[in-house]
Specification:
Elements (H helix, E strand, L loop, with lengths): L3 E9 L3 H12 L4 E4 L7 H4 L31 H14 L4 E2 L6 E5 L2 E6 L2 E11 L5 E2 L13 E4 L13 E5 L3 H10 L4 E5 L13 H19 L5 H10 L11 H6 L3 E3 L2 E5 L2 E4 L2 E2 L4 E4 L3 E2 L29 E4 L15 H19 L11
Parallel strand pairs: 1-2, 1-6, 2-3, 6-17, 8-15, 9-10, 9-15, 10-11
Antiparallel strand pairs: 4-5, 5-6, 7-16, 12-13, 13-14
Helix pairs in contact: 1-8
């Protein structure tokens, strides 16, 4: 039989959410381990498209305890973010075990069981520190497209060299679609299909936008105004879950100047080609900028709604004491899944875990035996 590695807390996910949780657990002297599926810390950022930069200046891109290096007003590259996360884990000696893809999370009468390949981890508490964007969402009718059409999801796109010559259809008009459209505009004929997600006012390159608007959005609007504590935040949350965020950096006017064409919604396939607003659109490439699904099918605990989203209250799962979430979209505010906002949720959950362990260390799971 495989040996069982025991810990007070297992954190699942070694991205910015998991590292932030680990940092705050360490401040409370809580024994824990962090399981990350990637071979190296930061790989989730390294795998994204080559030209990607963060959507906030560096002054907002550091986690608690360690500022992001370099020019505070510049947008870091995705590789710089990956290197920062690796440096963060090393600086604070965080107990990350890389290359541990979690296959199952279950409960027995003694606590949580986390299975990763042939390794089993047991814990009194588990914190799932991941976004709810884990599995690529692609429409069912994608399989009806001609085999001669090159298809990629935005999560698979790296650079224009991956695509065939000819027209590229980007299905999805959010930030990923806009950024990739700009990346492709100099090498391909580009069409962006899908309803508008809106745009944040102002030019991302102007002084006012980069220093004043960004500060208001990140420091006030995303953290406090758009939160579960305010009526406007609760209304925004119900609309934001499952929808794209308004365009932040690349706006429709810039795309039009670059020759990118806008189209309506793709509704299906006819004769192997996309159908957009009832018209067949011949293309050579399709990139699905259609987002992600939660991808939590490895959690074998009944805590999900009909959409596969965890039922929680500010990251706490009332039905399963000891199970927590950090990093979900709009966990407590619009900034919960953002680098600059995840620390607040991580610190709060770490305090709750510290309190729970101190109160229940002798018999932490009596209520879970029947689950």
């Amino acid at each position: 039989m495989n040996s069982i590695q025991r810990s007070d807390v297992v954190v699942i996910g070694g991205g910015q959410a998991g590292l932030s949780v680990s940092y705050h657990l360490r401040k409370h002297n809580i024994e824990h381990i962090v399981l990350d599926a990637a071979p190296h810390i930061g790989d989730a950022w390294r795998r994204r498209w080559d030209s990607l930069r963060l959507f906030t200046p560096a002054r907002y891109d550091g986690l608690d305890g360690m500022a992001f290096p370099g020019n505070a007003s510049q947008w870091p590259t995705k590789d710089a973010m990956a290197d920062y996360l690796a440096s963060y884990a090393k600086t604070f000696d965080l107990p990350v075990l890389s290359g541990r893809l979690v296959d199952e999370l279950r409960i027995d009468g003694q606590g949580f069981r986390v299975q990763s390949g042939r390794e089993t981890f047991a814990a009194y508490r588990v914190i799932v520190a991941m976004s709810n964007y884990q599995a690529m969402r692609i429409p069912d009718f994608a399989v009806e497209l001609s085999p001669h059409i090159r298809q990629l999801h935005a999560g698979q796109y790296r650079n224009p060299a991956q695509l065939d010559d000819g027209t590229v259809l980007l299905v999805g008009a959010g930030n990923s679609g806009a950024e990739i459209a700009k990346d492709l505009a100099s090498t391909h004929d580009v069409i962006v299909a899908g309803p508008s997600t809106g745009e944040i006012p102002g030019s991302a390159t102007s002084f006012i936008s980069r220093h004043i608007v960004v500060h208001i959005l990140n420091g006030i609007v995303f953290n406090h105004l758009l939160s579960v504590d305010t009526p406007v935040g609760r209304r925004a949350r119900s609309k934001a879950v499952g929808r794209g965020v308004p365009l932040i950096r690349v706006k429709s006017r810039e795309l039009a100047r670059l020759g990118v064409r806008r189209a309506g919604r793709m509704t299906g396939v006819s004769q192997g080609m996309p159908v957009i607003d009832g018209t067949v659109q011949p293309v050579e490439n399709v990139i699905w900028c259609t987002g992600f699904t939660p991808g939590f099918d490895w959690i074998h605990i009944p805590v999900f709604d009909d959409h596969g989203e965890p039922r929680h209250e500010r990251g706490i799962v009332p039905a399963v004491p000891g199970l927590y979430f950090v990093g979900l979209h709009f966990l407590t505010s619009m900034s919960s899944a953002m680098v600059h906002g995840v620390g607040r949720d991580a610190a709060r959950i770490a305090r709750l875990v510290a309190h729970d362990l101190s109160d229940n260390a002798a018999d932490p799971f009596p209520e879970l035996a029947t689950i």
